[in-house]
Amino acid sequence: MSLWAEVAVAVLLVSSGLFVLVSALGFARLPDFFLRMHPPALAYTVGSWCVSFAGALYFSLLEGRLALHPLLVIAALGVTVPVTTLLLARVALFRRRAAGAPDTPPPLTPPRAP
Amino acid sequence: MSLFALLLLPFAGSLLTAVLPTRARTALAACAGLVAAVAAARVVSLYPQIRDGGVIRETVSWVPSLGLDLTLRVDGFAWMFALLVTVIGALVCLYARYYMSPDDPVARFYAFFLAFMGAMLGVVFSGNLVQLVVFWELTSVVSFLLIGYWHHHVDARRGARMALTVTGAGGLALLGGVLVLGHIVGSYDLDVVLGSGALIRSHALYPVALVLVVVGALTKSAQFPFHFWLPRAMAAPTPVSAYLHSATMVKAGVFLLARLWPVLSGTEWWFWLLCGAGASTLLLGAFIAMFQNDLKRVLAFSTISHLGLITLLFGLNSPLAAVAGVFHIMNHATFKASLFMAAGIVDHETGTRDIRRLNGLMRSMPRTGTLALVASGAMAGVPLLNGFLSKEMFFAEAVFLTAHPTVEVGLPLLATLAGVFAVVYSLRFGYEIFFGEPSTDLPRHPEEPPGWMLKPVELLVVACLVVGVAPSISIGPLLAAAARPVVGGDLPEYHLAVWHGFGAPLVMSLLAIVGGVVGYLWLRSHQRSGRLNETPFFERFNGRRLFESGLVTATRLARRALRLVSSRRLQAQMFTIIGVAILLALLAARGVPLVWGDRERLPASHEFVLLWVIGMVCAVGAAVMAKFHRLVATTLMGGAGLVTALTFLWFSAPDLALTQLVVEVVTTILFLLGLRWLPMRLHDPSRRTTMRDRVRRGRDLLLAVGAGAGLAALSYALLTRPAPQSISPFFLDRALPEGGGTNVVNVMLVDFRAFDTIGEITVLGAVALTVYALLRRFRPPAESIGRPQQQRVLPSDVVTDLVKPRATGERAGGYMMVPATIARLLLPFSFVVAAHFLLRGHNEPGGGFVAGLVVAIAYLTQYVFSGTRWAEGRAHLLPPRWIAVGLLLAATTGLGAVAVGYPFLTSHTAHFTLPLVGEVHLPSAMFFDLGVFAVVVGATLLILTALAHQSIRAHRPPAPNKRTEAS
Lengths: 114, 967
Known about the structure:
The complex is a heterodimer of chains A (114) and B (967). Chain A is mostly helical.
């Protein structure tokens, strides 16, 4: 494997680690639930992308043939992350409204009888 | 047609009628009648072989290693019974065509009817005592179904249950008796048993065997004190009564007595048991029959009485009496079946069976009237009819008996008295309803029934007449053939004739007839004036009441015993189970030192240890959270499961890992669905922890740690030892060359041990159906019936962006829009993944089980995100059909091997080349795996959707408990 390829893989891996670190920091430090939701959804996903690309690149070059199956991780995350994030947000919203918390965002459409 | 074919014919007919259209009366009757007629013709054609004491035997070896064979054995007596069963069966089929209403689901009727015929043929053909008991119980079960045919009537249900309880209990006693007999003789074969009469009678266990066998026979033949079920069984349709309760099933008891007569009779025990039961039944049945006002009940009690007569005849220990008993079995079957049919016709045409309301029917239905009159004449024992002959033989036996003086005097008196009663009830049946002023207030205007409905009655009545007038020509040879095996081969001297000269029996007959007429007139005048409307003396002694109070007492005792030894509290049950398990394990391990083995250890890797730490934290967390936060506990359990799956993967068991993963998903969904129905448990801070709580918790902790640590130690001790020699190398070696696949796990499942797998998927299907059936009757506790708290926050009909899709008209909208859309997109991909797993399963990790779970999960996701109604409105899943198709597919694949001459489930691999795809390797086990796949999909979906349906069902709060209110 050429040096350039090795450098590219290494850069991808290190940046993935950085993204995950940022995500973890944000998850631990951000003050509000709705804010805290974002780092695992965004930064963490980008980190996973980086690892997947690194894997695809590394094994393609190492074995001399196209090894794209690490990219399936990206597809799977594309399915699960929006669903979990949305459901979590909805649950939090629901609970706050039910409890009458003061800093709850207002509904997009006001409640009305059918 | 061999005997086995003859025996199977009615069962095959039963299956055929069961699948015909349920109201095709004519086709069904024709089918059933044809089956019965063919069977009857075959039975008739056996006559030359058994005429002179010949015996036909056929044996199929079944479990030769246990000495179990299926043996069919026909001698003259069995032949005579088979003739009764098939001929009367055919006649009743014809009769039932006109009797059953167009609204009745007659397919069920004929199916049960033919099944009963088969069971009865099984009883009479059995050449093995245990086999006889099996068919005996089968007749009880089928008769239960037939009595309860009109199951919307409460008396039909009760009558059926009572008949089943009594005859079933008797069958159990019979089984015991047969086992004792087998123990004495050393064989269950009928021929061997029949040949060892002296051995049995002199054995110490003889009384035990005798009492048990006799109890079986007496319950089946409705003999005192077990007679009470027969009148209640009259709730059955009349063809059933004509067939089962006069001609065949109730005769099974006396059949057994006659069958074992050469072996068991000839002792004091036999004499007193059977004569006691027979004589009291004869008198009691006839006495009660006189006072009945329901036509069928008159006939029922008369049947009881006649069966008592037959029992008495067999009990007299005289060969001549036994011949008379056999003769009376035949005669009674003919006239009683025709009388039942006549009663059914009267009921059918007038709408009532009440003797008090029926009068002068001779005007409107002369043919029925004449036939009923002749048949009741035979029942009463009028000369020139068949009943007279056998009754005459009985009288002769009663007079010439040599026994204790009281018996010698008492028996003729009793016989005459019973004869008087018989004449009285026959007159009530025959004379009272057909003569006198025609009644005007009947529910229906009576008229003659269709000609074909009368044909069976006519045939039977003609038989009564022919036998009665010319017995020695018509029935003589048959009776000789039938009676010879009963008395052990040597027929006594007897003479069948109408005129025996003027002697004591004739005097008794005449006395009975004259006394009967006088008694009838006396009874009628008393009944007309309003006295004697109930049975005197015996009204208070009520077998039914005894039976029911017995049942109630038994239930109460069982409940009390249950309360004594069991608990409804889950905690106590768990404690006992685990405690006993630990105790047993410790007992088993007594004296065995716990030492670790010396197998070479693998070095621990950091990642793996970390993985297990996570798993353990999840597991302990789940246990901690289980009390107040069940949802959290479920999630943590999922985490522990995931770690288990990864462990499997780590140790190179990808198949297990894959399966564990999908099973984990399904289990979590199952738990979540179940959580909805558990009542909420709230932490109550005001409640102080008492000393008792601490002790209990400590005890439970000790138990839990003991069980867990014990299992862990055991596993470690085993894992550190070298693997014992097992059959796993065999599978590893043979999987590729003989199974044609590199995935050993899958080859084992679908090839080497496919028979196990077929059993397992059958169990899976059965479990799914059972869960479904149980959940149909699911009644949640009162406190969890209301909607969960989350759904109560907003009124369900308010439209906001927070509403569940359920409330927005099932449009899968609201906040579930995004997940639902993604889940829908995922469905086709899941199918691709499942197909991939299924196809590569033979060589790579995968297989039908995993593929089935993947598809099931894909569908369940639709349920989760879009709601039950939405999902089911769009996909017609029909899980039971998946299960059925899967089982059929698996079984057919297995049978395919049989068809080409290999053992069941042998696999074959086809290799061929397709364009584009290249070489294809297609084992027949693939289709088997497809069956597994379908069963798994069906079972998973059935169980989970059945639970999911509870959430959209309307649950009513339970009715206030009557029992607790009363107490």
